[in-house]
Structure formats: C-alpha cells, structure tokens
Amino acid sequence: xxxxxxxxxxxxxxxxxxxxxxxxxxxxxxxxxxxxxxxxxxxxxxxxxxxxxxxxxxxxxxxxxxxxxxxxxxxxxxxxxxxxxxxxxxxxxxxxxxxxxxxxxxxxxxxxxxxxxxxxxxxxxxxxxxxxxxxxxxxxxxxxxxxxxxxxxxxxxxxxxxxxxxxxxxxxxxxxxxxxxxxxxxxxxxxxxxxxxxxxxxxxxxxxxxxxxxxxxxxxxxxxxxxxxxxxxxxxxxxxxxxxxxxxxxxxxxxxxxxxxxxxxxxxxxxxxxxxxxxxxxxxxxxxxxxxxxxxxxxxxxxxxxxxxxxxxxxxxxxxxxxxxxxxxxxxxxxxxxxxxxxxx
Length: 345
Description:
Blueprint: E1 12-16, H1 25-28, H2 36-52, E2 57-60, H3 67-72, E3 79-82, H4 91-103, E4 108-113, H5 115-124, E5 129-134, H6 147-158, H7 164-167, E6 168-170, E7 173-179, E8 189-191, E9 194-198, E10 214-219, H8 229-234, E11 245-252, E12 260-266, E13 269-282, E14 287-290, E15 293-297, E16 300-305, E17 310-316, E18 321-323, H9 325-334
Parallel strand pairs: 1-2, 1-4, 2-3, 4-5, 5-18
Antiparallel strand pairs: 6-18, 7-8, 7-17, 9-10, 9-15, 10-11, 11-13, 12-13, 14-17, 15-16
C-alpha cells in the first residue's frame, strides 16, 4: 500500500557531506571508504522511503559530485528546494544548508556523514531534529540504519503523523567555554561524542593521535562497540547515550603509566594508552583545561589553547533531537499505516 499524500507536509532536509568517509585514516589506518555512488544510492533510498508514505518535499544542497541530483533525477513527483548559497567546499556548506533548512521549516533533517558532519550541523542548529546516517570515519553519533526505513521515518515526521517527543530525545553534548590568555571570552564550541586535549604541535596534523601527547578526553558516551575515544572509554566502563552521566579520562604517557588500556583509536588501529584517571562524571560537572594544548572535537583537531588560556568543559543534555527510527516504525505498525483492506466489489 502507498499511503495517500497529505496536503500539509513540512519539508525534509537532506545534508550530504561529499567528503565524509574519505579522510587520511584510510591511508594510515584501515577505515573503509564510502564512495560518491554509495552516497547517491543512500540518498535515493531515503527519498523513496519518504515518498512511499507521502512526503515529497525536500530541502537539499548541491555539491561538486551532484549527489542529490544523480539520486533523484528519475524519481517523479518530488519538490526539491535547493539551498541558494554558493559552495565554499568547506564546513561552511553544511552550516549554510542547515541554516536554510531551519528557515524553511524542516521538521527533520537526514544527515549523511560522520561525527564531524553532525557536529557542524549542531553548531548551526543546536536542537536540530536529526536522523544521522553513518557514512563517515568516526560514527559514534550516527546510526547504522537502512536508508529506506530512515526515509520512511523522516516522512512520518514530516507529515506530522507522529510527534518528535514520542520518538526522539535530546542528545548529550560536550560544551566548551573558552577564555584567552587575557581572560576574554572566546567563541564557545561543542562536540557530540568526545572532546580531547593533546599536547600536539599542529592543528592540521595528518597523523593519528600520539598516545604520548594525550592529556584528557571528556565523553558523552563510552561504548565498547564503537571506535575512537568513545570505544576506548567503553572498554574501561560503559556509559550509554541514555545515561545521565558522562565519562572522563585523564591520560599520561604509556611509557610512564602503571595502567594501560589498549583500544581502537581509529578504524583498524589500536594503541596503548596510559591511564592516570578514568571515571564517570555528572552532567554539568566542570572540567578545566589549561593551555597550551590542542583541542579536538569528535576526532578532528579544531582549536588551540595558548599558554594562559583556559577551557571549561561540561557535558549537557541540550543537543540535537536524535530520532529513534525503530520507534517511528513501531508507531507505524501499531497504527496499521501500511495495511489496507482489498476492495472486492
């Protein structure tokens, strides 16, 4: 059965990071690749799943590979509203797209990317209602879900058939307040999964994190089934995304440490990390970090604290609305959305 299209339907946002799943960790670790063709196929399935329930309006953005265009060119009956901002081939493209989607009243945004892509989206739209489909390197925040079903779930939300409060919860995020060496407040920052401090010289370094340089990590979740610092933390003690606490790890050089954790710091790459302290912390508990250190958010080096600067780090539950696709589809089952009686007259 194809449900009847409803006249009142808010648009669905589609964010596709053409560079996700292509970084240097494919060369120096063993991360898999997600090709342009793979992403176009995922987009196509999302759109078909949404159209099946009657949602045909989408807010989309362009990219050099024409991923959305290629995915939708043979699908009829769609209304595509293209982001008007010119491409910058940087994170700004995601920011611009999400801003426009918010302005156009998208009730849900489907994001194809990893932790980093979703972080940029959350910076622009702090309470974004999101279905994050995993196509990145670090995928602790995105979910592994069949794109067809993700699109169907997005469609039900766009049609207003099910409310956000029924099928989603606000995610935990790491929030950082930063003061420079003169005590002047700088732009705040956030991470969806982990904020890491390291004594590393280069923001743009292409190496993996050197265990000798690590200082600390603050995690919204510690999951032994994931990769990255969330996976490292999960091998010490599990903290789920639903728990009302977070996790703190203080590192010391493994050559000087009496306690070692061996964990997957990147796909296919394990390291020995020296543990000075590892414990659960409360939501809202302050963790202070003094410069000089390099700060990385969700696996990507982003910000340097110079000598005399300080960051105050807290985990709060005021991040994106993370939509539970399974809950949406269970709602559809309970309501017989896909069932119909055959007319025998």
